[in-house]
Amino acid sequence: MYRQVSIWALLLTVVLRQTAADIPVDEAEHEQLLTVVPCIRRLCEKYFRSERAMKGSLAIINIKPDASIFQQHILRSFNEDPRHEMGVMVKDASRPHLNASHVTEKAKNYLMLIADSSALAAPIRQLRRLPTWNPLAQVVVVFTAELTPLVFEIEVRNVLQELFDHSVLNVNVMVQRYNTSVLEVWTWFPYESGSCADNIERLRLVDECEYAFQEPDPERNVRAAWVYRERHYFSDYGPKIPKYYHYCPLKVSTSIWEPFVVGNASHIEKGLEVLMLDVITARMRLVPVFSVIDGSLTTARITADNQTGLYADVLQRRTDLMIGGLHENPISRKLLSATIPYFQDDLTWCVPTARHAPKWLNVFIIFNVWTWLIAIGIIFAAAALLFRFNYVEGLYRVNYTWMLLQSLAFSLSVYAHYWPRRVSIRLFLIGYMFYGLHWNAAYHSFLISVLTRPRYESQIATVQQAIEAGFGFAGAENTLGHFDKPDGVSRHIAAHYAVCRNLDECLGRLRRERTVAIAMSRAHSSNSRAIGEAELYCFSKAENIYTYSVSMLAKKDFHLLPKINELIRRISESGLLGKWQKESEKIRIDHDEDEGAEGDEGGGSGGDGEKRGEGQTILRLDHIEGAFLLGAAGLLLALAAFIGELLYYRAKRRYRWRDNLADRYLL
């Protein structure tokens, strides 16, 4: 704390180097000003001990190095307080401030000494740059010159307005009543008589103090002494920032961004943040008034432009808050204040879901290549054995093709036209039959699952895979800055990046374009009405562009922000956020179902018609087209063989070729 005697001795030495002879002050005015110093100290003690101040809290006093005797007396009065309940920091707004990052405690009180309202801007600029800046602190402004009745109200209003423009509402202005030793304290009450802290309507006199000499009165046993004569009016008006706000409007700017805000440009339905604001405003007795901003502003490059930029409404004080899945950035930290975060979201890449794999392969993918080769080899090897067995026994006059068909029949566990005589051959066929039973059962059991479960192509799941597949990249303009990096992946993305003015329209491109990746909020991608959740695939968290905390953005140093933060904290701890998120998702699901019903009425659902009833799958031709293709291939081979035989037969007759070994297989 700043109350060490050595520090004060140094400060006072610097201040007192200026003698009274160096300062041109009228002696009569000088004496009259000094008479109110005790009242200033007494009333500061009252205001600085308010509910917002604590013992040992920090007070900042603005005094120039060429301080007048009047200002020196005020500083000395604080220094000579034997209790030293406040640490005091002296500032000079005329000089650049040194680094004060070592001071972490927020100031609870400010005392500003000014000659007129025009001198207030410099100390405010300096104090706002300090880490101790606290717009909710108690501020006392003292005019160091007497004000005539003509300029008194104008100057007081100017001071209150200047501080109000910087969101400072706990202000008391001390003015010496003209040609008297009475100190008056004037202020305003932002929510008085139905007001909503829009402008300064009425000035209120809240305190009067006079430090006067009391003449002795022997009859009443009163000794001569200096006494305070005070009159207080503070209790007549109540606190400046009350607990409830008699249903004043809370103006909110938002974009439509599910699941945080659900609706359209003309009507806000619900949403995570809308439901949260409903609870907050109901508790504070405020009325939320929403205005929808153009969605293109949320995707454009973020700037400090207070005319057309994203934050223009708040910077020009047309609105108090901004919502819509927003997060802080370097520009917003300088211009705005933010609530505590209440939701974590990711910016990631979303791509089309992998398409269904070709169904004609269904009858072949049951086993891998080596299994098929072994099974086919067994059929041919068994056919060769059967052909040899039949040759030894001499039972049938058949060729190898006929025996190949018998071997295939045995392997498929169906009837075969072969009945050998020898016991050894029959035992071989019994073993081959058991093999066929097992093979047939395995094939058909796997066939059912393959036919009834959809198969998909390989899903693009990483940025590297997307680059290798020749994907293009798209997203908001304000996202492009994340790829201003020297690595190869970032350079490739930046070179192939297309700016989206409307992110929902870009998200809808995934329905018709197979080689595009959209940079998108993960929460929005799963709740957007522009595309079904099953129609897109968003990369895993390991592939995030970045992760951020969602919060509301407010006017700089908004005086209602501490109460809003307190309610957000209580809402988060109660678990209501999860419930509201589900409600927001339900709104989207209901909307999608309504659109689906309209589509059915207009000519079908547009689906593939595979599902009929619960758990029932109707097989279509394309499910088993592989078998038909295989049969067609066999017929084509047979037709080609027939044509070849026919041509060979005609050529042999025409050219009278001799009989040869090929005649056994071609004629």
UniProtKB/TrEMBL annotation:
Subcellular localization, as worded in the UniProt entry: Cell membrane
Stretches that traverse the bilayer: 360-387, 399-419, 627-648
This protein's UniProt keywords: Cell membrane, Glycoprotein, Membrane, Receptor, Signal, Transmembrane, Transmembrane helix
Putative ionotropic receptor ligand binding domain boundaries: 134-201
Alphabetized Pfam families for the sequence: LBD_receptor (PF24061)
Keyword Membrane: yes
Protein name: Putative ionotropic receptor ligand binding domain-containing protein
Annotated organism of origin: Anopheles quadriannulatus (Mosquito)
Lineage: Eukaryota, Metazoa, Ecdysozoa, Arthropoda, Hexapoda
